[in-house]
Amino acid sequence: MSGVLTHEGVVRSVEGGRALVAVPVQGCSSCGERSRCGVGKLAGGGKVSLVTVPACDDLAPGDAVTLAADPDAINRAALLGYLLPALLIVAGAVGGDRLAHTDVAAVLGAFGGLVLGVLVTRMFRAASVPLELLRRGRAGD
Fold it and tell me: What is the reported pLDDT for 135?
């Protein structure tokens, strides 16, 4: 699995062909950017991040699993999630200014670009980073 990013986790629940996997948040306490980074906060302030992925056959709560993701897919998702809304904000501001030649129009255009950017990223976020679920061990083994 060279070139693939992996994280160990434990299945919390399996329902409707989807598995809820608890993945420990690692590295936050030793990272020099922890005061400015939101990764630990995104995990709800806890020690794990909960991820929902398609479940493989015969998966049960308590099973040890590995989640694998393609780094290129992660980079594309970052571009979609951060760069696209920023570009749409700028485009909306320029469009509003060109259309009405006022600051209010530019602000409204920027806000419209932000809303469009958020909607587009929400629409594509589920498919942006496909995760592969690999079983490492059964519960109770």
Answer: 74
Longest pairwise C-alpha distance within the chain:
69
**Facing residues of 51 across strands?**
21
Element (H, E) at 111: helix 103-128
In angstroms, the CA 68 to CA 131 distance is 6
109 φ/ψ angles, rounded to the nearest 5 degrees = -65, -40
Angle at 58 between CA 54 and CA 64, to 5 degrees: 75
With left for phi above 0 and alpha for psi between -120 and 50, is residue 140 left, alpha or beta?
Answer: left
Instruction: Identify the pLDDT of residue 41.
Output: 46
For 49-78, the pLDDT digits (tens) are: 888 888 887 888 999 998 888 888 888 888
Nearest Cα to 85, choosing from 125, 113, 127?
113
Cα pseudo-dihedral 80, 81, 87, 89, rounded to 10:
140
Q: What is the DSSP letter of 57?
A: T
Cα-trace Rg, the chain:
20
